[in-house]
Model the fold of this input.
Amino acid sequence: MAEFKEISPNASAGEKLMNWVDNRFPATTLFKEHMSEYYAPKNFNIWYIFGSLSLLVLVIQIVTGIFLVMHYKPDAALAFGSVEYIMRDVPWGWLIRYMHSTGASAFFVVVYLHMFRGLMYGSYRKPRELIWLFGCGIFLALMAEAFMGYLLPWGQMSFWGAQVIVNLFSAIPFIGPDLALLIRGDFVVGDATLNRFFSFHVIAVPLVLLGLVVAHIIALHEVGSNNPDGIEIKANKGPDGIPLDGIPFHPYYSVHDIFAVSMFLFVFSAIIFFAPEMGGYFLEYNNFIPADPFQTPLHIAPVWYFTPFYTLLRAVTSEMMYVLIVCVVVGAVLAVARIKMPALFKALIVGGALVIVALMMAIDAKFWGVVAMGGGVVILFFLPWLDNSPVKSIRYRPTWHKYLYAAFVLNFFVIGYLGTQPVSDIASRISQFGTLFYFGFFILMPWWSRLGTFKPVPSRVTFAAH
Done:
């Protein structure tokens, strides 16, 4: 048992209260470890605001969600009407609902930017692999949370979007139909599905999400933050043990983040008050029509933040399968011919390629579309082991690496846009090329990330006061 700290009888009431708390709970110690004595690199730039903004949006979503649940009814006959009641009759209900719907899109905006910053500066590299894995887990949980929440308004697009996505699970061999039935809770999307999704959206997934966020922050503060130079600041410490290139997170970066939060709230508020539907991208117009199982919308598409992965799904057709088979065969041949490895490993690669080709020919393209959609997210988990570059940060990589990253971002925007559009021949071709580029970027990363002339990395971070 720890000894109680004594305090002067002349101390203020606030100091006495804080001492009383500290003797029973390490409040001051935690504040010092994670704020005032947590030393972050002094060369953070604007790309480092999105982690804090993600935490802010998470709080907004939880708080607004609590108020919405007070009036929402998870019943197929009443759900749409309860949302209309919130919008029209509950005092400030329209504001809470628009904060929640806009917050969903804002969450993905800041998370995508946060992940791209990690991609640019190599924040997934050793010793931060676990931080990245927790972050990808957060992204996966966030997608599940958004998908389940999307059904709750019980509008036309909610209903038919859920119908399409849940039916995809039936393409999985052997267990697919039973899995789809389990998810729906019925043979069609209905009241049982709504209740399942409501319970997961409100209780189960948020608990997982919060746990992953806490793990993400703990792992970050254990190894320290990365920086635009990709240099470990703990390698250069002063006599007092403090990193020479580090500054306390509080007050320097807490003030930095407060400014970023202010700017974010300006934009967030402008969208809520002037364009909450954002032209049909944040809230589709079809979702203001009650769900009708007998009237299919002309074009069913998910919300914008799912559309890149939806495009990966649609790109895999029977015709595309032949291209993928050629890619698998060529990849196996190059791996065996160009990489030095034991004969046993080469045999395993060849055998694995043959099994994959056999499966691709035997199983319907619809299943491989589902695999591509899921693989688009899962492949992100392997990024720390795919990047073989001798430097972390894009600042010290060859110039053509920057163009490749720019092409990846442009491709992501293109396939995202195509996911919102009806299927056409030209769009299908572009989608298929975009899918190959997306996966090629990651699968070929162990090779291309080592190529080129790399710039020398300084021993200390580069920083100019501003």
Summary: The chain is about 65% helix and 0% strand. The chain has a mean pLDDT of 91.
